[in-house]
Design brief:
The protein has 27 helices and 23 strands. Strands 4, 7, 8, 9, 15 and 16 form a six-stranded parallel β-sheet that branches. It has a six-stranded antiparallel β-sheet with strand order 18-19-20-21-22-23. Strands 1-3-2 form a three-stranded mixed β-sheet, with no helix packed on it. It is globular and about 95 Å long. Helix 4 links the parallel strand 8 and strand 9. It has five domains: 38 residues, no CATH class; 224 residues, 7-stranded beta/alpha barrel (Alpha-Beta Barrel); 151 residues; 104 residues, no CATH class; 164 residues. It is α/β, with parallel strands linked by helices.
Length: 824
């Protein structure tokens, strides 16, 4: 039967061929998007011809990892070869999804895709704070992806997240509210719009959380299907989910304890599991076929899944490329269209209700604990890693220790803020606004200045006390970060970090009470027993964290070593939250430093002497006084007190100094190495091994100097010297020397690429980049070109060609396209 109101010309046949012999009736109708006629089966098969809405959501998050004494992430050996886990997962996942490769059949780059433009996503604020500080280009690309999705769909791909991943059903009402509001404020400032949905940490929810989300103006959340107890199938009729799958292609309404209603999307369980654990990301074709099978079987209006964002590259290597290939397949075909939850909700308002599981003890449900939210307060059997005989009984006393401390802190916070600021200073409103400091949008000093304008003038002591009260609240919140309970033992990185934050909260508040906050906290931690005998209890862990120097002592030691050992170009005036205001040498071994804690708004003066006893390394004797010249700390620091991360910095300063070679010395060494190489050719008498081993070191020193030390030699002269040095290293060097040289060239290529991204491509930068690549490859080296590909891609595809018109630059660009492995 044919609808004769439509013409048959330009008909698009979109039914899979395997259905051609199974359905006798067809319907010719207009496509709603293009008005072109579309041939469809009828009845019941038209859904196969329409583009099905597709949402893949990635939950991207890292807990706060900074040492609260200095606001620097310590070196984490388990993250090797990277400095810490943030850097490792950044390299595996966050950065590559912003520049994911789609390759041609010959392995050349056909397209670079920003997956965040098509992926529904949330980034935890603590991760975005770190990204903005350490990788601002990727941070800004994520924000730009949300803006582009807004343009394409009318709603953005980004969702907000409760601030530092606290399990909201287990938090106090005020803390849960603050977590939500902090998350909203960070999102609004960062993305330039109000969030419509919020990702709940571990998807943990209960009626109270629903009320708080609704009161905050949020419209929806994404939950797992096993959090649903029953769904409404028609007005007044309900069906339990143990007798039927949870419908996933439309939102449901869930109710709070006070009658508020929130839209909830329950994702496709098998699709999410297949992506996360079934290796669907190893083959984009297989993933596409799986989506087609869901479409053909269920005929849904929406297919969606939520997963840990780290699956796209970290847990599943090259998962980002599978996603990029899927994005291209969806764009090239007519089966699906990428959208996001807010866009879908606009045209598919929820009308039916769902009831959530209440969880054990009625505390709520989550997506990673079948018992509800028990994983974050007791030994429910859920854990990751560890031996079979381990238990997680430590979870209960750990949470109890934090809860009892938090109650005392909140009482002190309210009382002190009201006492100092009076009616003009609402404690919880003040804490909410403090999020702009935590997120890095304003400095502590500016925040307190603005507060003084709104309330009354504040003296030095009052400014410091208010700052301590607010910082203590931040640390109190951070000690509840969910990772502290998720894994196998209290001795792991994450529980230790939570304990460290709680100790910092105690330090901030001990001046506001005569009660001992520390002793009862340690007593509660004593009940939390580690599965490893060496770690003892939570108290043992806490005491070990208290043994090191204070933040101001660590910073003073860093500044002193920096000024003693580094070249002027490697001097540092900041160390985490500390700023060096003045430095002077008072005697042969004596030094004087003025240091400001920019977070606590405290000024310190440090007098130090440096001693180098035989065989003991460095010893620093320091005496620290505050602005009233009251002694706050005297300590002797040895090599053992230098943080591992700082040791890496120190060795890099020394290395930079050792590898400093003047222009004249460089030319002389390169010429000598050339003669050395010529004499070795076709000569049966080889030089003694120690000679060329020494010369290898000299060559490496010169190469490093060429790319890291300011010099006046023109590139042509340096190029000749580099080639002479390289030839010798390649001929006589071992794998370790080759790796060092490759790293030197990779670093230089990255430096130029960063310059191109920050400024623009011109003939000088382009030709230099091309020549550096050519020199390296002529000797068989394969330096990293990833950043260069990212930087040059907009020019190669023509997005930024209007920035230059020089024919020479165009010629260089064509050559770079080939050198950087782009498809024609």
């Amino acid at each position: 039967m044919v609808d004769k109101t439509n013409e048959i010309v330009n008909t698009t046949v979109c039914i899979p061929s395997q259905y051609l012999s199974t359905t006798p009736k067809i319907l010719l109708r207009n496509d709603q998007r293009t008005s072109a006629p579309v041939l469809c089966y009828h009845p019941g098969m038209e859904m196969l011809c329409e583009r099905t809405a597709l949402i893949l959501h990635g939950h991207f998050y890292q807990p706060p990892r900074e040492n609260p004494l200095v606001d620097i992430i310590p070196k984490q050996s388990s993250a090797k070869p990277f400095m810490d886990w943030n850097e490792r997962i950044f390299d595996d996942c966050y950065s590559i999804n912003a520049f994911s490769r789609y390759l041609s059949g010959s392995g050349r780059i056909e397209k670079i895709i920003d997956n965040y433009e098509y992926l529904s996503f949330n980034f935890g604020p603590t991760l975005l704070i770190w990204l903005k500080k350490h990788h601002p280009d990727i941070h800004d690309r994520i924000v730009e992806a949300d803006r582009l999705s807004m343009t394409r769909l009318g709603h953005g791909n980004a969702m907000a997240q409760a601030f530092n991943h606290t399990i909201l059903p287990l938090a106090s009402i005020q803390d849960a509210k603050t977590q939500i509001l902090w998350g909203i404020d960070d999102f609004t400032h960062r993305f330039g719009r109000q969030p419509e949905g919020m990702w709940l940490p571990e998807a943990a929810i209960n009626p109270l959380v629903v009320d708080l989300l609704v009161e905050a103006g949020l419209r929806f959340a994404v939950l797992s299907p096993w959090q649903v107890e029953s769904v409404e199938i028609s007005t007044g009729n309900w069906r339990r989910t143990d007798t039927m799958p949870v419908p996933y292609d439309n939102p449901f309404l869930i109710e709070g304890s006070r009658g508020g209603t929130l839209n909830a999307f329950f994702y496709h369980q098998d699709l999410a599991s297949g992506i996360s654990f079934g290796h669907l990301l190893r083959d984009a074709d297989a993933l596409y076929d799986y989506l087609l099978s869901i479409k053909r079987t269920d005929r849904p209006s929406l297919i969606h899944a939520a997963t840990d964002g780290e699956i796209y590259g970290h847990h599943e290597p090259f998962g980002d490329m599978a996603l990029a290939a899927l994005v291209k397949k969806v764009a090239d075909r007519t089966d699906f269209t990428f959208t996001n939850y807010a866009t879908y909700l606009e045209n598919h308002q929820a009308t039916l209700h769902a009831r959530l599981h209440t969880g054990e003890e009625g505390k709520g449900s989550s997506w990673s604990c079948p018992h509800g939210v028990s994983r974050w307060y007791k030994d429910c059997g859920c854990h990751t890693g560890g031996d079979d005989n381990w238990n997680q009984a430590w979870r209960t006393p750990l949470r109890m220790a934090f809860d009892r401390l938090a109650e005392k802190i909140d009482v002190l916070f309210i009382g002190e803020i009201e006492r100092m600021l009076g009616p003009a200073g609402s404690p919880w409103e003040l804490l909410r606004s403090y999020a702009q400091v935590i997120s890095g949008f304003t400095s502590t000093g500016d925040f307190i200045d603005n507060l003084a304008k709104k309330t009354r003038p504040l003296d030095y002591g009052e400014r410091a006390r208010i700052t301590a009260l607010l910082a203590g609240q931040k640390f109190k919140h951070f000690c509840y970060t969910s990772c502290g309970w998720f894994f196998m033992d209290i001795g792991g990185i994450e529980p230790r970090q939570n304990i460290r934050y709680a100790l910092s909260a105690i330090d901030c508040y001990k001046a506001f009470t005569e009660d001992d906050l520390l002793a009862p906290f340690l007593a509660n931690l004593r009940l939390a027993k580690s599965n490893r005998r060496a770690d003892g209890t939570g108290e043992n862990i806490a005491r070990s964290l208290m043994e090191g120097p204070s933040g101001i002592a660590e910073a003073s030691g860093f500044f002193l070593i920096n000024r003693r050992l580094a070249l002027a170009e490697d001097f540092h005036d900041s160390y985490g939250q500390f700023s060096l205001e003045a430095f002077a040498q008072t005697s042969e071994e004596g030094f004087s430093l003025d240091v400001e804690d920019t977070y606590a708004l405290l000024d310190y003066h440090t007098e130090a002497t440096v001693v180098t006893p035989k065989n003991d390394g460095y010893l620093l004797n320091i005496r620290i006084t505050d602005h009233n010249e009251t002694v706050v700390e005297t300590r002797q620091l040895s090599n053992a007190h230098i943080p591992y991360r700082a040791i890496d910095d120190i060795f890099s300063w020394i290395d930079h100094s050792l590898n400093r070679v003047s222009d004249n010395e460089l030319r002389r060494i390169a010429t000598d190495i050339k003669h050395y190489s010529l004499l070795m050719r076709n000569n049966r008498m080889m030089p003694k091994e120690p000679y060329y081993i020494e010369n290898l070191g000299t060559c490496l020193r010169c190469l490093r100097s060429i790319f890291t030390t300011p010099n006046l030699l023109p590139w042509a002269s340096k190029r000749e010297s580099i080639c002479q040095l390289l030839e010798f290293i390649i001929r006589k060097g071992h794998q370790s020397e080759i790796a060092i040289v490759t790293h030197i060239f990779s670093t230089e290529i990255d430096r130029v690429s960063t310059e191109v991204m920050a400024r623009r491509l011109n003939y000088e930068r382009g030709s230099y980049l091309l020549d550096v690549l050519e020199v390296a490859r002529s000797q068989g080296l394969q330096p990293s070109i990833t950043l260069a590909q990212n930087a040059l891609y907009p020019y190669i595809i023509g997005d930024r060609n209007n920035e230059f018109n020089a024919p020479l630059t165009r010629q260089v660009l064509d050559q770079l396209a080939v050198a950087l492995n782009f498809a024609p």
